[in-house]
Structure formats: structure tokens, C-alpha cells
Amino acid sequence: MGIVRVLAAGVCLLSSLLFSIEAAAVNASAPLTYGIVLFRMFDVLDVFGPTEVLQFVSSSFKTDIVYIAETLDPVTTRPTLAAMNPLNSSAYPSLTPTHTFTTAPELDVLILAGGPGWRNPALNATLDYIRTTAPKAKQVITICTGSALAARAGIMAGRKATTNKSSWPNAVTAGPNTTWVPSARWVEDYSSEPPVWSSSGVTAGIDLMLHWVEQTYNKENATNIAKFMEHVRIRDPTYDPFARNETVVA
């Protein structure tokens, strides 16, 4: 009986979630294809946080996620330098891309994850892909130091953005012509096309994605997805528990 009750409760909760999403008016202009760029030493949650949110969206709205890298070889989060993994731990997962930069489909939303690997000086192909793809997307979303990666690709000039506060000193140097906001959970920039949304540290990316769902689909969708994830949302983009003390850097 206990198992039956657990299963019934799970089905009930999931049905409630899906019903609330299906009850929302279908937005004919809603995005179809989301592309997440992978590089060695990407941050796990920067990739799977948005993926988790979009999986729920896909239950009621056609949603495709493609994982894009220079090759189809598995991309690892393992550090390239032994000094960054002194105990030779094996706690670093890999993710196999679905497409390369040359085979990737046209994207509605380009998602740029962060992670220590954004600093890699050998990311020329990755930067070229971002540089050429971003202008053709309807929206660019950066998670954590993904905004620094975007800045390296040259797509953040003249924009407002935020980034991971622990990585702030290095990250902001990547965009000398970017207005960096040191106190923000996330920042929305509509100064030019396409809009670019940037989030602060790792979990801020989940709050940004839930806000994205609320704006793109329906407020109830975002509320119920957060509830199903048991995630306590920060809804105010100006509320930043990890804010830096600097004034805005321009």
C-alpha cells in the first residue's frame, strides 16, 4: 500500500503540474530550439539547471535542447591542470554533445554556461561559433561566468550584464566595454538585438530560467516547476545575497 500511495501521490503532483502548463495559452512565438555550448571544465549546474527547467516545459510545449561543442567527443568537467585536482579525484562527469559547431541547427535561444574553462586561451572555435550564432538567435542567456565567455566572443560590448561574484575580478576584465552590475541576481539587456540575459552565480541561473519561463510561457508554469523542483525562487533580480561592493563597472 505504501508504494501505491507514493506512486499515486507522484502521479497526482505531476498531473497537476502538467495540467497547469497545458492550461496556459499556447504562445505561437515560443522558442523551439535551445542550444547549450559545451567546453572543457564547464560548470555542471550551469548546464543542467536550465536543462531541468526546460524538461518540464517540454511536457506541454515542443522543446528541443541541443548540446554543441567543437567535436562530438564527450566534454568533461575535469580540470586540465593537476594543480586544480591535487587528489586526482574522479568526481568530474562528462557530457556527449549532440552537435558540432558546423552541424548545429538554427537556434531560437543560445545558452552559454560558465565554469573555469571559460578562461582557456584555446577556445577560438567556441568563440567564433558564439560570435556568429548569437546575432541570429532570438535570445541569448548566460549562466554564471558564461557572460565572461560571451564577452570574450565580443557580443557584450555596450551591454549591461552580471556574472559570478566569486569570479568577478577576472570575469569583468573579459568585457572592458560592458557595464557590469555587481549587485544583481540577473540582468536583462534589451539595448540591441538579440536580448541578452545574464545571471550571477550558479543557482542564479535557475532563478533566471524560471523567470524566463514566466515571461515566455506563463507565471503559473514557473511557479509550479519551482514547486516540483522544491526550489525556493528569488524573484527579484535586484536581490543579490552575494553582491560585490564595487560600484557599477563600465
What amount of the residues lies in strands? 5-15%
> Which class of secondary structure composition applies to the elements?
alpha/beta
**What is the distance, rounded to the nearest whole angstrom, between the alpha carbons of the first and last residues?**
62 Å
Shape: globular
Order of H and E elements: HEHEEEEEHEHEHEEEHH
How large, in whole angstroms, is the Cα Rg? 18 Å
Largest sheet: 7 strands, mixed
Q: Identify the strand order in the major beta sheet.
A: 5-2-1-6-7-11-10
Low-confidence stretches: 19-25
What is the tally of helical segments? 7
Helix content: 25-40%
Find the count of extended strands (DSSP E, 2+ residues): 11
How would you state the average pLDDT, rounded?
90
Keywords: Signal
Protein name: DJ-1/PfpI family protein
Organism: Paraphoma chrysanthemicola
Signal peptide: 1-23
Question: How would you describe the overall organization of this protein?
Answer:
- The protein contains 7 helices and 11 strands.
- The protein is of the alpha/beta class and 250 residues long.
- A 7-stranded mixed beta sheet has the order 5-2-1-6-7-11-10, sandwiched between helices.
- Strand 8 (160-161), helix 5 and strand 9 form a beta-alpha-beta unit.
- The longest helix has 22 residues, at 2-23.
- The radius of gyration is 18 Å and the shape is globular.
